[in-house]
Each structure stands twice: as C-alpha cells, then as structure tokens.
Amino acid sequence: MNRTWWKDKVVYQIYPKSFYDTNGDGIGDLQGIIEKMPYLQDLGVDVLWICPFYRSPMADNGYDISDYYRIDPQFGTDADVPQLIAAADACQIKIIIDLVINHTSEAHPWFQAALADPTGEFGRYYYIREGQNGQPPTNWRALFGGNAWEPIRDTGLYYLHAFGKEQPDLNWENPIVREKLYEMVNWWLDQGIAGFRIDAITFIKKNLDFPVLEPDQPDGLALIQKASLNQPGIEIFLNELKARTFLPHNCLTVAEAPGVELEDLPKYVGEDGFFSMIFDFSLADIDIKDDVWHVGSGWTVKDFRDHFYKLMIETQKIGWNANYFENHDQPRALNKYFPPEDIGFPTATLLATLLMLSRGTPYIYQGQELGMVNTPVDSMVEYNDLSTYDKYQRAIDAGLSHDAAMAKMFARSRDNARFPFPWDASKNGGFTTGQPWLKLNPNYTEINAASQMNNDQSIRAFYKHLIALRKNSPWRETIVDGYFAVYPVTDEQIIAFTMQKGQQQLLTLINFQNKAGQVPVPDYFDTLVSNNYPQLNRVSCQVKLLPYQAIVLAN
To answer: Mean pLDDT for the chain?
Structure first.
C-alpha cells in the first residue's frame, strides 16, 4: 500500500459496549459489529476505530487492560477477531484498534507480580517509589482525581497512576517493558489490524526528578501533566516505537497526544513524524477552562473560528489533521456548540460539512451521523464513568449545588457518548433484548438508525452525501489534497475557507449563528456542491446565508 493510503479515508469510531448486543446481556459485542457491517458499508466509511475489547476489569471501560492478547468475555471470544477482520475486509473496510501502553490494569499479571515483590523484576515494570515522611512521593494529582501515588500495603512504597488507581503507569525507562510492548503491537498488526489509535501516549515519559509542584487547587495537589506530559526525551521512545512496529507495517496511527505544542508538530506528524496524525484538543475542549469541567471558558464563535483556522494552517505546513468533534471521551457536539433550542438538522449538518470538507481525515463517532445528543439523567447512579464521579465531587467541593453540578455533568460527562446506540424505535432502541448496561436516551423513538436509513432528507443521508463527495465526485482530489486557505469575511460568526488543487477551487461557507449572514462571493464560484438548506439565496455577488446554513461552491 501507498505510505499515505489513509489520507482519503473516512473513519468511524465504535464504542463496542454500546454499539449492538447480539446475546441479550445488555452489552454490545464484536458479533454486533460484524452483524452491523452492512450499515457501516452503506454509510460509506472506510476505517473502523474500535475502542478496547481486550480483557479488563472494566474500571475504566476497557482502558485498564489485564491481557493485551485476549478478548474480554463480555465482548465475545478470541475467535471473533479474525471473523471481524474478514467481515470488514469483505466490505472494503479496515480496522484500527486502541493501543493503551501508558498503563495496564492493576489486574495485569505484571502488576500483580509487582505487588507481590515491589523491589523485584516486575516492580521495575512500573514506577514504584518510597513515600516521604509517611506521605506520597509527590503531590501530583491524577487525571481522575486524588493523589497520583497509591500506597502498596504497609510497605511505605507507592505506585504511580496518571489516571485511575486501577491503572498503574508502565515504566518506559525499562527496555524490557518496551520490548514486550513492541512484541504485542507487532502481534496485532500481524493479525491484519490496519493501525491504532494510541491512547494517552504523551504521558509515557516522566520527570524522573519527581518534583513536588506548586499546588493549583485547594487540595494541595498539582496536575500530573506538569511532570508527565510531553516531557523532554519522549522522542527517543516514540521514534523507537515507530521504527520497531508502525513503520514496517505501513499502518495508520492516530495519537491522543495532549501537550503537543505547535513547535513540536513536525516531530509528531511531519514527513518523518512519530504518527500519521494526532488529535488536537483545541476545538473539542473549547468550552472548559484550565481543565476544570465546572468552569466554563465563555468561548465565542470567533474563538472557535480562530482555533479552527490556526489548526488547519499550521498543520498544513507540516503534516496531516485528524478532524473530529466527538469521541468516547467527549459529550455530544450538538450540545457543546449550540443552544438547546437550535439543535436539529441545520446545526448537525453544519458540523458535518465542517468535519468532512476541511483538510484532514474525518472521524465520525457512532451516532453522530444520526444527530445524537446528550442524555438526561435523574441521579449520579445512572452514570458509569470514573471521571464523571470525580468531576461531580470536585464541583461540589468547589461550592456548586447538587443541581448545578448535575447540569455540568449533563454538559460534560463522557457517558454522553457511551449511552447505547439506537437502532430503531422498539424497546431499548433495538440495542439489546436484555437490560442495557447504560440506559438509552429517551429520544431514541425519534432519533434512531431505522428512521433515517431510507430518508434522503435525514442527517444520516447528509453524511452519506458528504462522504460521497470525498470519495466519488469531481471534487474528490481537491477535498482530500487541496490547499487550505482562509476566505476573508467581516462577519465573525461565519467560517469561510477555500480548498484548491490546480485550477479547481471549493469555497465552504459556514454560518455559525441563529441569524442570517451575508458574504461576497465572486461569480466564478458558480457550481453548488453542497447545501444543508433547499435553497441558495444569491443576488449578484452576494450570498445570503440562512441561520446555520452550510454551503459549498465550486468554480
């Protein structure tokens, strides 16, 4: 395959636990993905990114892995994987999976051996350090709350976990650990996997001085990111990982890489970068301030537009974008970017246009193509996510009322993306014949796949239209390989840009507001390529955009 075979692909992310359940236990499974492969083929996607299905105690829904080589029984059997790959191949779809190598589960045999003998061989597979005066070695705060150091019985020793205490961090300084990880990565690639989404990869290098940091919250702790995020020397590990695994297999790699500054982009996604592409967080997290859920950023459309333009322009100089608005760690985008009263076909298709026709590989999260929204809950017991419980408690500790904290959880809980996929209007949305592991959004009787499959005016149909533009249209090469440039407009609520290849140009106009806007457009943009409204209002050299209208014109 060409080294950049992935550039023209459309990726669809599946959270298997919530996609489709074939055995009635209330949990989605690999056979469910196999059974729904025709749905994905009909949509037109080329690559499936499937979240972890490895063996796991599920403290963090599979991102705490106890066996990298085995399938967790709730998702099926080991024999389901080759069947899944074959079913996808028959539909001209490739599979990429999550690669979680910053940490393991506490139930992993390596860590169990480390607990049994913290100063022995397996103790060196993790970060185990002595406490200080009966306290943890440092005051680093884990991402899921609390001190990032967990005591090991009464030994006076502690182990490090950047995320939950159930997820001890692997010691990448140990070459034996790296060798075992590379062996596992190559094993999966040899099974026919086409690549990986690499989880939390910029956390693998630590500040080995283990400094006590200036507290940033009343709890006396400081974010672990300050000592364990894109630290100097990480490039040695990442180059070795690429050379030993990714490069020989010519695979697609997309990294969750928080902490990467613009000046570091060439190392990450340049011609000889560590990865094919990385996820940028500037748009997905635009609504929060300083990584604190309950503190809003007060973002504006201009802020969004400026972040978008900067991301497109800077990455274009160096490498390739991974474009997304939703994933398993994010709430639904429609709730994030628009007032509740404005959520509907125009806003959903506006985001779809921006996602699919800007420079880079688009990532669609399951249900996004249906216009799924956040799920209302009555109490915290209806949430499952570890991080949501931590953020709720921190909101309460900061003085928010229960109702105010619950409103923040509705706006931001990761479970918003994890509530089950609605296949039809029957009981449990056709997701399961049993009791679903999380409840379905009560609107599943209106928003479901069956209601949109044969409706050419649906949000899903619009996604199909945009995917077809990328794959089978006269503008395909310009959309995929064109040069991105900002199209100047005076209205700060309008996002406008061109993509050009050779003499062909596409002009995309996005009216990100609930009122009309107007843009001057030269006569030579005379071909309508896409429009999320039935009409195009054009008088002389002025295009009038209706509320949340998204138009694409060609010369």
So the answer is: 96
Q: Measuring CA to CA, how many Å separate 353 from each of 366, 411, 420, 462, 513?
A: 17, 23, 25, 9, 15
DSSP 14-43: E-GGGT--SSSSSS--HHHHHHTHHHHHHH
Distance of alpha carbon 384 from alpha carbon 362, whole angstroms = 28
User: How much is the pTM?
Assistant: 0.96
Sign of the Cα torsion 439, 443, 446, 449 reads negative
Q: Residue 53: CA atoms inside 13 Å, Cβ hemisphere, count? A: 30
C-alpha–C-alpha distance, residues 260 and 251, integer Å: 22
Where do you find CATH 2.60.40.1180 in the chain?
Answer: 481-554
- Locus of tokens 């619950």: 406
Fold of 109-160: Oligo-1,6-glucosidase; domain 2 (3.90.400)
- Alpha-carbon span 318 to 502, nearest angstrom: 20
| Strand pairing category for 94-100 and 47-50 | parallel
Q: Which CATH number fits domain 481-554: 2.60.40.1180, 1.10.10.10, 3.40.50.970, 2.130.10.10?
A: 2.60.40.1180
Q: What is the Cα–Cα distance from 510 to 497, expressed in whole angstroms?
A: 9
pLDDT tier for residue 1 given thresholds of 50, 70 and 90 = low
Those residues whose C-beta lies under 8 Å from the C-beta of residue 217, and which sit 6 or more positions away, are 141
Show Cβ contacts of residue 197 under 8 Å, excluding neighbours closer than 6 positions. 49, 96, 97, 98, 99, 254, 255, 256
Within 13 A of 437's CA, how many CA atoms are on the CB side? 24
DSSP annotation of 430 reads G
Q: What is the CATH number of domain 11-103+175-379+453-463?
A: 3.20.20.80
Alpha-carbon distance of 238 to 234, in angstroms, equals 6
CA 403-435-98 angle, 5° bins: 80
List, by residue range, all CATH 3.20.20.80 domains of the chain.
11-103+175-379+453-463
Residue 415 has what pLDDT?
97
Helix (H, G, I), strand (E, B) or coil at 50: strand
Q: Which segments of 175-323 are extended strands (E)?
A: 195-199, 222-223, 252-256, 277-279, 288-289, 292-296, 321-323
Numbered ranges of CATH 3.90.400.10 in the chain = 109-160
Tokens standing for residue 216? 């940033």
SS3 sequence of 148-176: CEEECCCCCEEEECCCCCCCCEECCCCHH
227 phi, psi to nearest 5 deg: -130, 5
Q: 538: which strand partners?
A: 543
Q: How many CB atoms lie within 10 A of CB 396?
A: 14
- Sign (positive or negative) of CA dihedral 320, 366, 297, 308: positive
- Residues with a known catalytic role: 199, 256
Degrees to nearest 5, angle at CA 199 with 195 and 204:
115
**Which pair of tokens denotes residue 25?**
């236990």
Which percentage of the chain shows pLDDT scores above 90? 95
pLDDT tens sequence across 152-182: 999 999 999 999 999 999 999 999 999 999 9
